[in-house]
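Quick one, tokens below:
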């Protein structure tokens, strides 16, 4: 049993895949945090387009 545990602890197969998985997960969390919600990129884009729409409505020619 000791030999099996020693061999398991020395075996590094699959470690790289786990590391890449952790990196991908952290990147996904960072992207969601940056883009999601009204405080991130989404909120900034909404505010920018709302300002543009207001300017277009204000400066639209009268019918």
């Amino acid at each position: 049993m000791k030999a099996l545990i020693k061999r398991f602890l020395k075996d590094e197969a699959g470690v790289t895949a786990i590391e890449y998985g952790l990196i991908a997960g952290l990147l996904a969390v960072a992207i969601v945090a940056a883009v999601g919600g009204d405080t991130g990129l989404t909120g900034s884009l909404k505010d920018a387009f709302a300002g543009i729409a207001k300017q277009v409505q204000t400066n639209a020619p009268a019918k």
